[in-house]
Amino acid sequence: MILSLRELTVERAGRALIDRLDLNVEAGQVVGVVGPNGSGKSTALRCVYRALRPSSGAVLLDGTDLTSLRLRESARSIAALAQDGQIDLDFTVEEVVGLGRAPHVRGNRALDARERELCRRAMARMDVTHLADRSVLTLSGGERQRVLVARALVQEPRVLVLDEPTNHLDVRHQVELLTFLRESGLTVLAALHDLNLAAAACDRIAVLKAGTLVATGAPAEVLTPELIRKVFGIEVTIVAHPRTGALQLLYDLDGGTRS
Ligand SMILES: Nc1ncnc2c1ncn2[C@@H]1O[C@H](COP(=O)(O)OP(=O)(O)OP(=O)(O)O)[C@@H](O)[C@H]1O
After folding, report:
1. Residue 211: CB partners within 8 Å, gap ≥ 6?
2. What is the pLDDT of residue 259?
3. How far apart are CA 149 and CA 234, in angstroms?
4. Which tens digit of pLDDT belongs to each residue from 11-56?
5. ABC transporter domain: from which residue to which, for each copy (predicted)?
6. Where along the chain do its domains lie?
7. pLDDT digits (tens, 9 = 90+) for 186-212
8. What is the topology classification, in CATH, of domain 3-223?
């Protein structure tokens, strides 16, 4: 096991935003965190990429409590895409992607040939090569999101933490990103809203409700009509994709009243 959340708790104003959350992510697994707005997905992920300190409990990387590592050390292992990440610097796309190497380089050392190739590959993978010389301040929401994923990839992390990575992406780029994550062999912890994409891309899904883990397991075990009713308060019909057999959720806009 590479990443382990142990009884992770975050309290604010006398309320637990996440409450004794236990979650393991094995090497090479894609684990999706799903749940309604405000259920604590971002809060949990922020503890993993150390934007937030837990009130109690811990995040362990290979058994080591992250708080015992220097920030730079954990950034060599854990790269993050924050929710609605902003970039306020008037840097080019290529420069921002290169910043992903920051935890690995000392001082102002220029990137070496391997690192420049890494940047080129990440930009191609995220379909932003044609934007390399543009200022990031001029990008659309989806273009910016793809640049930030490319920056996280060049960090060469052991764990990639992605908070709603498909935000702002058009359907093609959503499908391409999740296909890539599934096939990359990377270890990924991602908060996702689209349950169909989560089912297709994730090895395991963790479901949060009001800061508590209510289910975890393979998508087909977890994403049942009963669980979705309990957690999201909606009715769904679940069918198999006619060609791939993958689980598909159909949202019943009539609340399941018509047959
Ligand atoms: N500093 C804070 N003080 C008080 N409440 C907070 C604070 N930060 C977050 N919250 C609350 O904690 C809860 C969990 O927020 P979080 O952003 O983790 O939810 P989420 O599951 O990621 O939601 P979404 O799907 O809307 O992105 C929300 O009710 C939020 O309003």
Report:
1. 16, 17, 18, 19, 21, 39, 40, 43
2. 61
3. 32
4. 999 999 999 999 999 999 999 999 999 999 999 999 999 999 999 9
5. 3-235
6. 3-223, 224-259
7. 999 999 999 999 999 999 999 999 999
8. Rossmann fold (3.40.50)
ipTM score over 0.90, yes or no: yes
Instruction: Give the atom of ligand 1 at the shortest distance from the alpha carbon of 191.
Output: 22
* Probe residue for ligand 1, chosen from 8, 41, 168 as the CB with the greatest number of ligand atoms within 8 Å: 41
The token duo for 5 is 């959340």
**Residue 13, amino acid:** A
77 with 158: CB under 8 angstroms? yes
Distance 42 CA to ligand 1 centre (A): 7
Stated pTM of the model:
0.95
Neighbours of 105 (CB within 10 A): 14
Q: For residue 84, count CB atoms less than 10 angstroms from its CB and return exposed for 0-12, middle for 13-18, buried for 19 or more.
A: middle
Q: Tokens for 94?
A: 């290529």
